[in-house]
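Changelog entry

Holo records now carry the ligand SMILES as an explicit input line rather than a separate metadata file. Below, a converted record for flavin-adenine dinucleotide, shown in the new format.
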Amino acid sequence: MKVIVCVKQIPDPALPGELDPSTNYLKRDDKLILDESDSYGVEMALQLVEAAGGGDVSLVSMAPNGEVGGLRTALAMGAEDAVLVSDSALAGTDALGTAKVLSAAISRMSPDLILAGVESSDGYTGTVPEMIAGALNMPSITFAKQIRVEGSTVMVQRQTEAGYDDVECPTPALVSVTAGVVEPRYPSFKGIMAAKKKHVEELDLDALGIDSSAVGKDGARQETIRVTDAEARQAGEVVEDQGDAHEKIIEFLGELKVI
Ligand SMILES: Cc1cc2nc3c(=O)[nH]c(=O)nc-3n(C[C@H](O)[C@H](O)[C@H](O)COP(=O)(O)OP(=O)(O)OC[C@H]3O[C@@H](n4cnc5c(N)ncnc54)[C@H](O)[C@@H]3O)c2cc1C
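Structure line, unchanged by the conversion:
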């Protein structure tokens, strides 16, 4: 079984992010890391291949400046190899452009299954996976908490507000994985050393046959019009216990749909 995982490499969220004041684009010039959202897809893919008793996990990413830092982390977890699409003409590419680029790269790879995160954690739209499936004309299932593949059918427990739905579709298919549903493995020292030698194929737009006017700033249909500071965090509500505090807390958690 061949599983491809879409892996976004993002600026380290532990560092203060910075916007380019002329474009309002997130600066991505420094080292990028594996988006934690995608570590769940990588883990899920590795478990599926292990359960199938064979196959391999390949990664695909689009990132500026030939960045492979996040890919090396996923390779150290156990993925076999990776494809990176990097081209200066991609600066300013929006979500649709990203999906066009990733689907062009994936179409060369003949997967049984493609996994992606439900949404990334830096400048997320939560739309890229389904647009990739649309471009590749394949079925897509979102919000997976559990995935099984039997023959040419993929069976998914799809998370809902009330629990989950069982859904299935034929392969090849794209499934987006909900964050937190598996425990991503830590790369071992051996894995980290092996990852240094694993093959990362770097492609540009010419190699994919994509006209630069279809992507980048010129091809983008998304624009950052305004940037405002996030609302300051409000003080929490203090519940004074007069014998009914537990009821108030249960009511509060109910409103948040946590219970
Ligand atoms: C204003 C602007 C400027 C940008 N500039 C650049 C740039 O200079 N260079 C550049 O390369 N990109 C650039 N991008 C593209 C950007 O980094 C994202 O890839 C794109 O916007 C989609 O991300 P998202 O967070 O909305 O995806 P979502 O739909 O929230 O992501 C869901 C899942 O899709 C997959 N996915 C999303 N993006 C990628 C990716 N890039 N690679 C692999 N998998 C992915 C991941 O599995 C992710 O978990 C820019 C985007 C914008 C809006």
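Spot-checked after migration. The two ends are 38 Å apart (CA to CA). The longest helix spans residues 36-52.
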